[in-house]
Write a structure and sequence with these properties.
single chain; 2 domains; 2 strands; MetI-like fold; two-stranded antiparallel sheet; 266 residues; 14 helices; mainly alpha
Length: 266
Amino acid sequence: MSQQPTLQDDISAASAAAAVVKTKGKPLFYYLIKQWPFHLMVLPSLVFLIIFAYLPMGGLVMAFQDYKPWLGLTGSEWVGLDQFRYLFEREDSLQVIWNTLIIAIFKMVLNLFAPFVFAILLNEIFRFTVILSDVWKEFGFGTVVFLAALANVNPSLYEAAEVDGASRWKQTLHITVPSMIPIAIVVGTLALGNVLNAGFDQIFNLYNSLVYAKGDIIDTFVYRTAILSGEMGFGTAIGLFKSVISFVLVVISYRLAYKLANYRIF
């Protein structure tokens, strides 16, 4: 049973459209001032990020040097792009990149699919999934995200569908799932930025020299070459290569999230 829009609905829609037109084209500074309490909350994390993530980036110069710790950054020999050429000449480098992509992509896909399905189950088959949720704690964060999306679904849609004779399965298929698609797009596209992050801690604690061919990833390769073998310049070059690719993927993912789901930070 379809509901005719009321005068109040028309007024609300017109007000929302006017608000969009009013703020459209405003500079970034306008949004920063308007939302200053939220940015103030982020300030401690931003300071932490600058100190521990951006200031150490000065060490990236080692990627272009034959770095020797006892000579320092100023005394080590400059080798230009030799470290990067060496990266693509080594057979194990290409194997490491391939392993990283396989592990990270499978993690990304399954970590998106599992909480998506689990959130639907939690919404539909409560007793069974309450028991299952205690076992599958790995789904926690993703499930919360999708449940938050479900909480914003208008209950009148389910009521109208029930009046029209739709079964619970049809309500899930035609209301619940479409309502979750936008947040699924956001989660999936933002996950692209982590496609080269296959999980150093997990791999490092599970692998050994017998499984390097299948388990060695970029992060563990950097650890072995830079820390264990002392090739700090080469290790820095690998890390810089990964960071550049990840940065490009993050930019692409945010553009996709904005185009497909109208998601934006500012």
